[in-house]
Amino acid sequence: MSEDGIVRFRSEADDVYTDQDLIAILNLAEQAADGKPLLLLMLVNEYDFLMTKEARNLFSSYEKAVKFIKAEAVIVKSTPSKILYNLLTKVYPPKFPFKAFTEENDAEEWLLKYK
Fold it and tell me: Residue 52: CA atoms inside 13 Å, Cβ hemisphere, count?
């Protein structure tokens, strides 16, 4: 967790994430934020970050995610990836603000509106 109150997750390899993987990430983020509601920044622009259908559905129904995440931003590699992520949130809407970006500064600025 950085001084600005944003919890950052950086993908370390190309992988397909399951709902259980996302629960583990959320548990780590919760620990970093000392159990307080958090702003989550997912940095997945260096590697592919693919999710199973269950994982995509998780954040719209998982009580802990709804309770602890104030807003989430995702940094992706390209504009087409950004468009895809933002379209997916229309199909699988989370219960908190979510937006994909290609630039980290833009994502941080957007997240801090929810601080």
Answer: 9
